[in-house]
Amino acid sequence: MQTTAPAVPETREDGPVDNDQPIDIYTDGACKGNPGAGGWGALLRRGTHEKELFGGEPNTTNNRMELLAVIRALEALTRRSRVRVHTDSQYVQQGISTWIHGWKRKNWRTAAGAPVKNVDLWKALDEAAARHEVEWLWVRGHAGHPGNERADALANRGVTASSGR
């Protein structure tokens, strides 16, 4: 995992939401082959402070990396915060905003009755998001959005690190 200074200010998990200024989180996942070597990346920004995170796994899927990017970013915050998550994954944005409510009511089953894929990560994301006040925003990938492009580059660094190249 890589970080760069200056970091997002240190925080505590308990207490009221820090409403001074929201933290913008840009996330992305990448996979060379699906399944294959994968990586995730996240850029956390609050005002002029930034923190970069990335990691990867040698045998995974793109959807798992998209989810893991958001989970790791939210886990990096140690104080309840107002957060705007920017993701180019409709799987993540729709899943956490809409689908998850039905999945939980149906004991983590889809509308068709099948088990939810990546349920371990959906549960972890649900738990991580519950600690914060989160706004979920979808951005078009590879469209020149600076935050998304940096998250993409970080995710690709995670792929490289996980594949040993």
Radius of gyration: 15 Å
Distance, first to last CA: 16 Å
Helix content: 25-40%
Mean pLDDT, to the nearest integer, reads: 90
Shape estimate? globular
Q: Count of helical segments?
A: 4
The largest beta-sheet arranges its strands as: 3-2-1-4-5
What's the number of extended β-strand segments?
Answer: 5
Q: Major sheet: size, sense and barrel closure?
A: 5 strands, mixed
Uncertain segments: 1-14
Q: What's the SSE pattern?
A: EEEHEHHEH
Key phrases:
165 residues; alpha/beta; five-stranded mixed beta sheet; 5 strands; 32% strand; globular
Explain what the structure shows.
- The chain has 165 residues and is an alpha/beta fold.
- 36% of the residues lie in helices and 32% in strands.
- The chain has 4 helices and 5 strands, in the order E-E-E-H-E-H-H-E-H.
- It has helices at residues 62-75, 90-105, 119-130, 146-163; strands at 18-33, 36-46, 49-60, 81-87, 133-138.
- A 5-stranded mixed β-sheet has the order 3-2-1-4-5.
